[in-house]
């Protein structure tokens, strides 16, 4: 009798091992059991799993206001036009469909050595609930340049988006993605960035609106002495699912990275998901890295998932660590404020604002910071009548 030994199935455990493909069929349709979908709202994201043409007549599901960045736009027609695809590799079926169905990229290029004083803002507006659109965006900062690019999302649509970020040697770039969708919008976006030698990237994700929003950024600190900050802020109301799976890969020597995401939740069914992965590669000696996620639960009936992961392949590093915390209001903070004559409702507002503004104040764009501060106040006011949380979310 011949004994046939079968190889046991071993699920993918680390972010660096995930398969990539430009072919949607290689991934199949997510069921919610896959490692990168098990905490996602697969039911609401399902329209983005369909591989089909998205244009309806002559109207597009999403419009782009790019007047503010027109002088920095570069024609990019076709899948093979460089630098599109230089570093981007789809990690899931949504990114693969967006790659396949969007032949022409929106390419923003900052010229070598140029410092752009004002932020470059692209406004992306959904034109109707359920209307489906795919996009590929390339943000490129040439050597020695310095700029800030903001992607603002509003309206409603089922919108799949790939963002490819190239920070060349010695460049400094800030990328801010703001999600202020209507509650009926569905949005999944994959941001993939590479940072060259002596270069710096600050990447910020701010999500207030949308029914189900999944923005997954990854950053490769590839060049020697490269640095990166990955910052995020989410405020989930009743029924909202706001998610980010964050990946920082230290590849070069003497790289430095910081990951800080914060979330607030209020209302029945509000949910945030944060999964943070940091990989310090075997050649990344002298690395200094830290990641942290904090969530503030404002009412019962919410859920915050927070999973930090750290993988180190070399012992010659300056430092590395990670932390995660989810909880309700700090009673001592509230007591301190109330003991000084501040009413409880106002004290709670001050605590929430102080907690979230740490991210907002690091954006570096005064007008946008002021607007987001107002959005935070509006979110707090919207939940003012809800009962405070008696315990932390699961």
TrEMBL record:
Residues 128-355 form the SUF system FeS cluster assembly SufBD core domain. Residues 1-29 are annotated as: Disordered. Transmembrane segments: none annotated. InterPro entries: Fe-S_cluster_assembly_SufBD (IPR055346), SUF_FeS_clus_asmbl_SufBD_core (IPR000825), SUF_FeS_clus_asmbl_SufBD_sf (IPR037284), SUF_FeS_clus_asmbl_SufD (IPR011542). This is Iron-regulated ABC transporter permease protein SufD. Pfam families: SUFBD_core. Belongs to the iron-sulfur cluster assembly SufBD family. PANTHER family: PROTEIN ABCI7, CHLOROPLASTIC. It comes from the Bacteria. GO terms for biological process: iron-sulfur cluster assembly.
